[in-house]
Amino acid sequence: MSMMLRGLMGACAMTALAAPALAETLTIATVNNGDMIRMQKMTKPFTDANPDIQLEWVTLEENVLRQRVTTDIATKGGQYDIVTVGNYEVPIWARQGWLLALEDMGADYDAADILPPIAEGLSLDGKLYAAPFYGESAMIMYRTDLMEKAGLEMPERPTWDFIYDAARKMTDKSAEVYGICLRGKAGWGENMAFLTSMGASYGAPWFDMEWKPQFSGEAWKKALTDYVAIMNEAGPPGASSNGFNENLALFQTGKCGMWIDATVAASFVSNPKDSTVADKVGYALAPEGEKPQMWLWAWTLAIPSSTDAPDAAKKFVAWATSKAYTEQVAAEEGWANVPPGTRTSLYENPAYLEAAPFAKPTLDSIMSADLKNPTTVEVPYIGTQWVGIPEFQALGTAVGQQFSAALAGQASVDQALQMAQQIAEREMARAGYPK
Amino acid sequence: MARKISDTRRWGFTILAWGVAFLIFFPILWTILTSFKSEADAIASPPKFLFFDWTTQNYAEVQSRSPYFRHFMNSVIISVGSTLLGLLIAIPAAWSMAFQPAKRTKDLLMWMLSTKMMPAAGVLIPMYLLFRSWGLLDTRFGITVVLMLINLPIITWMLYTYFREIPSEILEAARMDGASLKNEILHVLTPMAVPGIASTLLLNVILAWNEAFWTLNLTTSKAAPLTTFIASYSSPEGLFYAKLSAASTMAIAPILILGWFSQKQLVRGLTFGAVK
After folding, report:
1. Which fold has domain A3-135+297-353?
2. CA of A248 to nearest chain B CA: how many angstroms apart?
């Protein structure tokens, strides 16, 4: 074998070995949601266009993910290049310098197309720190047949009183049909997501402008009294253990007349593959009290400042949250399956509006959410179904346990509110508020 | 003289034993059954026990979504590696505590055990920072060492208990016959303590296999064992019970099979010295 041939073969071998070594691996932490899992299966166009980038997915349960990512980012562990976070964390983490600002996302990214309430919640000082993958608000999903049987017609946005009246009339406990299903399981992202937004609708904030907890106020008493009363009268048994998934299961099996929860549930309850009531579901805007019940959540993709591949990470985030990705999902899986609630253009698309009957109430709910003014009085925090302070996860869960106990009959409404007030005062003093 | 047990009582005890065994096994059985249901059947009320449309769809989906074999290999390497490493340290330690006790041996044993009472979350951040500084995050070596350290008190305690049952006169006789320390431990003590060592090994492999806190926090993808594989199937929004059950069944199957085939050894080891 000639020297030249050997040299060429050697060079080829070196090139072959070097190619994978040059490829950059992006580790992406995500949650096990339908839209996220679909994205994992649809990355071929991205990897084909970027052969130098490999994707490594780490899917974790929501709370485990939150704990794991927080530990890693806070200690600059650098284990993740892209993380899936909610709009609760984004402003808090951005303020800490834990996230990279998402600038220069490419000419065709069209950041101005992102729904204004969603973009506002993900920005700090005018800079976007996370790109929304899908967004959601709250709406009422109800059984049209049971509503008709009760002799009622659901308004576009009902009052709480209408909901309570309808729930009582739709209940038939002997047939295991319960007029209303609401979250009761303790947790800041479970019952407190619902009760924080319901309370705000009654004019009950978490804190006043001096950060003093407000659970001793009349508005909270009325909200919690109504919630416990209607759940006892027209809710399913064991409601204090029910979260999103338990209520989804109840609704899909025909045991709930109405369910007020995240708009993402609409695609599940209207899917005939899993839902026995898919053809009997109607949608309405979340109820109104002193103010409409507001809710705004977005699962987003953010880039930790500890990543060693910021450019590749930005390229992926731009692709996954682009209009082109939405069109790719629509082409392969149909318009009803595209990630909802992030872009204005999606709600101007006739094909989407036709495929998703819940599109209009979803958009209206998102657009009516005001993160800075969630209730009737001025508050020092942002957030509709959460309070945008780092202490809220622990505090929300502690208060949620008291409210769950009230629902289970282990404490009275007054006792639960008194305990909530004590816990909140203690924790806020410990955390050094007002700051 | 052994007491005579009437047939009625014998039957009573037999039924009671089977009943208790069924109760203990039921969650595993339910998980396995649920893994063959559709998501709709998995949440059906009243629950469907055997009469549902059996499907292997969940297994197919789990297989297509996750690199099961990589997680499985990581579990094997981490659990067996940490146990063997632990035995290597614990056998000489337990020998010295059982046959050459010092004044503070009992205190030392209690202190070792007391480290198990410390909440793991309390040392997560310092541990994470150490791992980050040493470049051990998401490495099999790093997590193997951590699991070895976590289980070391249990391994040492178990071996110490077994070694205490062996008459020290036998070891003295070996020494008088000129056996070196190495020969004494390897050729005299170890063969007599094989049931104890085997059950310690098996129990610690199971403990390391099931360990979820450290494996979830210190591994990401390359070194992630089956615990992280299971954790990826829980969903905050959307039904997941059937797929989670399929993932759980796939994760526990190897250890169940190991336990089934080694149950005799396990029971023998755990009751070693209980009856004299």
Report:
1. D-Maltodextrin-Binding Protein; domain 2 (3.40.190)
2. 8
What is the per-residue pLDDT across B38-66, written as a single tens digit (0 to 9) for each?
A: 887 888 778 888 888 999 999 999 998 88
Q: Domain-by-domain residue ranges, chain B?
A: 1-65+235-250, 68-232
Q: What CA–CA distance (Å, rounded) separates B50 from A363?
A: 43
Asked if A256 has any chain B CB less than 8 Å from its own CB, the reply is no
**B207 vs A: CB within 8 A:** no
To which H or E segment does residue A118 belong? helix A116-121
Q: A77–B128: do the CB atoms touch at under 8 Å? A: yes
Q: Which of A58, A77, A248 sits opposite B221 (nearest CB)?
A: A58
Interface mutation vs chain A, best among B48, B226, B235, most A CBs within 10 Å: B235
CB-CB: which of A71, A72, A264 is closest to B237?
A264
How far apart (Å, rounded) are the C-alpha atoms in residues B1 and B126? 59
pLDDT of residue A182: 97
Residue in A with minimal Cα distance to B224: A58
* pLDDT for residue A15: 42
User: Span A359-363, mean pLDDT?
Assistant: 91
CB contact under 8 A, A249 and B43: yes
Q: Residue A253 corresponds to which tokens in the numbers above?
A: 């099996």
Beta-bridge partner residues of A56 = A27
Contact B137 A77 (CB under 8 A): yes
The Cα A249–Cα A191 span in angstroms is 17
Contact B45 A79 (CB under 8 A): no
Q: Is A70 on the interface with B (CB under 8 A)?
A: no
Q: Give the pLDDT confidence of A396-419 residue by residue, as tens digits.
A: 999 999 999 999 999 999 999 999
Contacts of A184 (CB under 8 A, 6+ apart): A191, A231, A235, A239, A240, A241, A242, A243, A404, A407, A408
* Residue ranges of chain A that CATH labels 3.40.190.10: 3-135+297-353, 138-293+389-430
Q: Is B48 exposed, middle or buried (0-12, 13-18, 19+ CB in 10 A)?
A: middle
Q: Helix (H, G, I), strand (E, B), or coil: what is residue A131?
A: strand
Q: What is the pLDDT of residues A293-330, one digit of tens each?
A: 999 999 999 999 999 999 999 999 999 999 999 999 99
Name every residue whose Cβ is closer than 8 Å to that of residue A262 and which is 6 or more positions away in sequence. Answer: A136, A137, A138, A244, A295, A297, B237
Pairwise CA distance, residues A111 & B260, whole Å? 58
Nearest-angstrom CA–CA distance, A365 and A285: 6
Residues A313, A28: Cα–Cα separation, whole Å? 9
DSSP β-bridge partners for residue A292: A288
Q: State whether residue A56 sits within 8 Å of chain B by CB.
A: yes
Q: What average pLDDT score do residues B230-244 get?
A: 84
Q: Is A107 exposed, middle or buried (0-12, 13-18, 19+ CB in 10 A)?
A: exposed
Are B210 and B88 in contact by the 8 Å Cβ rule? The answer is no
Other CB atoms within 10 A of residue B218 CB: 25
Class of domain B68-232 as given by CATH: mainly alpha
| CA–CA dist A162, B117 (Å, integer) | 54
The token duo for A342 is: 């992030």
Tokens of B185: 């431990």
B172 Cα to chain A: minimum distance (Å): 53
Instruction: State CA B5 to chain mean position distance.
Output: 36
Under CATH, to which class is A138-293+389-430 assigned?
alpha beta
